[in-house]
Write a structure and sequence with these properties.
- This protein is an alpha/beta fold and about 350 residues long.
- It has 2 domains: about 250 residues, Aldolase class I (TIM Barrel, Alpha-Beta Barrel), CATH 3.20.20; about 70 residues.
- It contains 16 helices and 11 strands.
- α10 links the parallel β10 and β11.
- The longest helix has 19 residues.
């Protein structure tokens, strides 16, 4: 599969952009675990236009995570064009590697974004969505891609026609989450419509499927049954970054790997913690790891007090000592992977 000049291999797995999750440390870790492409957190176009430091900082990427997409969102055409141009120059503005692709977020369903017409709120204004996309494509040098949903609600699943229109204005790949905006993350993802987009003889760009993929068998079915070119994994990776290694192994061998032991999870948590401290320093690298640390061990019995130690300590040495205690105390506890969110 290719996007522009990027060769992403056969049946690649992508890490979805997730706010407050896919920072540099998590992206690098998922890359190490087999993600073929990773994406930044959502970068607000209005923040970039205002020259807000926080928005610009979100565009910082590193060579070790490449290829990487910078995802922007917004609902004002002029701001989106300016933001896309800034993302195109991310290496200059934010430092590091920059963007390999620029992705437009037309899929986020949360009210503070969709409610003001951005993200999946744009599904109610497909003409405007296409106009913004066309303007962004024409404004930048990097490949432009789009992530979106099936439609606004069950009565407006417009993705088959919309996919053609987005392709016609120049996007080089399309990611489809198999739910409407009104579904949020409830109910089952509808992969049949994703398959219809892929099977449309007019479509020639890569189609990336997203929704409900939590392991190797589901990924294989998505590739085999619906013909998608790649799979994007979002919430199932939170607290479970090794999901990319597990799925890759299944796709390549047909065999499922055994669940990671508690000791193995401790080693991954330590690696993640070291990356966070290395990139952000203390105390920020500690604070921003708290949402991740306890999730590595969801499902352990009698874990509440230990979890509190992990998410309240500000001393790196104490956190590492707590992780060692977890490896020792729960060494013999069999632990199936339990995703943090319902998918």
């Amino acid at each position: 599969m290719t996007i522009g000049d990027l060769d992403l291999g056969s049946r690649p797995l992508f890490l979805a952009p997730m706010e407050d999750v896919t920072d540099i440390s998590f992206r690098v870790l998922c890359k190490e675990q087999g993600a073929a492409m990773v994406y930044t957190e959502f970068v607000p176009s209005e923040g970039l236009v205002r020259d807000a430091d926080k928005a610009i900082a979100k565009m910082r990427t590193l060579p070790e995570e490449a290829p990487v997409g910078i995802q922007i969102y917004g609902h004002i055409l002029e701001n989106m064009v300016d933001a896309a141009r800034m993302a195109d120059r991310a290496a200059e503005l934010a430092g590091g590697h920059g963007a390999d692709i620029i992705d437009i977020n037309f899929g986020c369903p949360v009210s503070k974004i969709a409610g003001r017409g951005a993200g999946s709120g744009m599904m109610r204004e497909p003409d405007k969505m296409v106009a913004i996309t066309k303007a962004v494509v024409e404004a930048v040098h990097k490949p432009v891609t789009v992530k979106t949903r099936l439609g606004w609600d069950d009565n407006s699943k417009i993705i088959v026609e919309l996919a053609e229109r987005l392709q016609d204005v120049g996007i080089q790949a399309l990611t489809i989450h198999g739910r409407t905006r009104q579904q949020m993350y409830k109910g089952a993802a509808d992969w049949t419509l994703i398959g219809q987009v892929k099977a449309n003889p007019r479509m020639h760009i890569p189609i990336i499927g997203n929704g409900d993929i939590t392991g190797g068998p589901g990924a294989k079915e998505a590739f085999d049954r619906y013909g998608v070119d790649a799979i994007m994994i979002g919430r199932a990776s939170f607290g479970h970054p090794w999901i990319f290694h597990e799925i890759r192994h299944f796709l390549d061998t047909g065999a499922e790997l055994p669940p990671l032991s508690v000791a193995e999870r401790v080693q991954l948590a330590k690696r993640h913690f070291a990356l966070s401290l290395g990139y952000k320093g203390a105390p920020r690298g500690i604070y921003e790891m708290r949402r991740h640390l306890s999730c590595y061990f969801k499902g352990l019995p009698d874990f509440k007090a230990t979890r509190m130690q992990l998410v309240t300590s500000t001393d790196p040495a104490r956190i590492l000592d707590t992780l060692d205690q977890i490896a020792e105390r729960w060494a013999d506890v069999p632990l199936e992977t339990t995703n943090v969110y319902d998918i």
